[in-house]
Amino acid sequence: MPTDTKFPRIAIVDIPGKGKGVIAKEFIPRGTLIISERPRITLPANASGIIDIQGIFGILEALSALSEEDAEFFQSFPCAPYEDPILGRLKHFTPCVGDDAFGLCLTICRTNHTCCSPKESPNASYVWNRSAKEEELRAIKEIHEGQEIEVSYTSEITTYEPHPAYLRRKFGFECFCKGCTRPAVERHISDQRILAYNAFVPRLHSRFGQENPLQILKDIETQILIVCEEGFTFEIAGRADDAFELCALHGDAASARQWEEICRDRYAMYFGPNSEHFKTAQRLAARPQDYRAWQMLGRRNLKGPSKQVLEYCYRKVETVPALPTEPSISAVVSKPVASQDTAIASGSNLHSASAPPKLSKSQKKKARAKAKKQAEESSSKTIVAM
Ligand SMILES: C[S@@+](CC[C@H](N)C(=O)[O-])C[C@H]1O[C@@H](n2cnc3c(N)ncnc32)[C@H](O)[C@@H]1O
Fold first, then answer.
1. What is the whole-number distance in angstroms between the Cα of residue 114 and the centre of ligand 1?
2. Cα 99 from chain centroid?
3. What is the 140 CA–ligand 1 centroid distance (Å)?
4. Ligand 1 pocket test: which of 96, 112, 149 has the largest number of ligand atoms within 8 Å of its C-beta?
């Protein structure tokens, strides 16, 4: 039976295999602030991280001071049978309430997790609103009536570890999302692409002023599309901001503006229009010349985001992109991370692999003849094998 909350658009229901969860009672457009909620219980910092002996005493003290009702609420969260009943439950606290405390919210803490993957990715995200002292749950995709609202507990790509093991260790549960239940080869491809992305990002700024900026922008675009395919769509903001900086360093206001607009719109969706992130991006999108190192690398015309990137960023429904075809899978799997990174950066990736090259008439004729010959050969092989 759904339990209504004080928020009319959502309800808490039982979700098979996950305990309780939050569902939408009506259509929720992308970018909507679904809930803004003050934590019902606040505990000292470290509550859900590494707990030292000092920390544990502080937490135990805070727990013993809870009202009976709050203690019952704390107890209502799941805890794996092999875990300590207090430490296991502390994992449900969102890292909010400023720098020195963690909070357990009545409704937001009932949102379940789904991993970021090409099969499925979260439709919501939460963020701590410092000035309101409230945790916000925001729709990052369109959410339909009856659909479960899910966030990712592990959306931080730079600390990425293969999903199931990480979730088991950090949160004490077996995740059965579509990403975790993919065949091992598909998960391996994702792991390799994410590791390559994580190697690409820290090197990016050191390339500014050293390499052809148009090539750098091309690499950024490729990486944006790859992380989007992998479901880490928040990364778009950071990479669009990098592209903005590069264009601003070269004094190209038009291109810089287009990149920063993407960043601004992502921040609006994830953090809201009152956030500092959004306001800074809005200011720079309006006047790229205010960038602190404007035109420091000399004046050069660069490039704004491609149609493909814009389409991805602004399409209404983020449909799950097609998975790579067999030849690409084996090509990626067989490559070590570093060479895959180079392959991705040079554009020889799954995107270019999926776009068939344009052939002239004579090339088409040759290709048809080759295909015919191959078909004949393979049918004769089958006959031999039989
Ligand atoms: C923050 S709580 C979410 C609300 C919780 N389901 C409840 O009943 O109160 C996190 C816990 O929910 C469960 N959970 C969340 N996402 C899950 C998933 N994808 N697969 C399995 N269990 C999940 C796990 O028990 C996890 O420790």
1. 10
2. 23
3. 20
4. 112
Closest Cα to residue 270, out of 231, 236, 228? 236
DSSP sequence for 235-256: HHHHHHHHHHHHHHHTT-HHHH
Dist. CA 129–CA 132, nearest whole Å = 6
Q: How far is the CA of 174 from the centre of ligand 1 (A)?
A: 9
Spacing, Cα 113 to ligand 1 middle (Å): 7
- Indicate which atom in ligand 1 lies nearest the CA of residue 76: 9
Whole-number Cα distances in Å, 295 to 241, 250, 256, 300, 367: 16, 5, 11, 9, 49
- Pairing assessment for the beta strands 134-139 and 124-129 based on DSSP bridges: antiparallel
More confident residue, 16 or 206: 206
Q: How far apart are CA 164 and CA 299, in angstroms?
A: 48
Q: Whose CA is nearest to atom 26 of ligand 1?
A: 173
Q: 87 or 179: whose pLDDT is higher? A: 179
Identify the bridge partners of residue 83 per DSSP, sorted by sequence position.
none
| Ligand 1 centroid to residue 19 C-alpha, Å | 6
**Least confident piece of the model among 100-104, 196-200, 344-348:** 344-348
- Residue 172: pLDDT above 50? yes
Per-residue model confidence as pLDDT tens digits over 110-125: 999 998 999 889 999 9
Query: Which amino acid type is present at position 103?
Result: G
Determine if ligand 1 sits within 6 Å of the CB of residue 21: yes
Decide whether any atom of ligand 1 lies within 6 Å of the 109 Cβ: yes
Q: Which residues contact 256 (CB under 8 A, 6 or more apart)?
A: 244, 247, 248, 284, 288, 291
Given the candidates 3.40.50.261, 2.40.160.60, 2.170.270.10, 3.30.565.10, the CATH classification of the domain at 3-171 is 2.170.270.10
Report the SS3 class of residue 33: strand
Q: How many of the other CB atoms lie within 10 Å of CB of 324?
A: 21
From the DSSP assignment, how many helices (H) and strands (E) are in the chain? 14, 10
Ligand 1 center to residue 18 CA distance, Å? 5
In the chain, domain spans: 3-171, 184-352
- Cβ of 176 closer than 6 Å to ligand 1, yes or no, is yes
Burial (0-12, 13-18, 19+ Cβ within 10 Å), 276: exposed
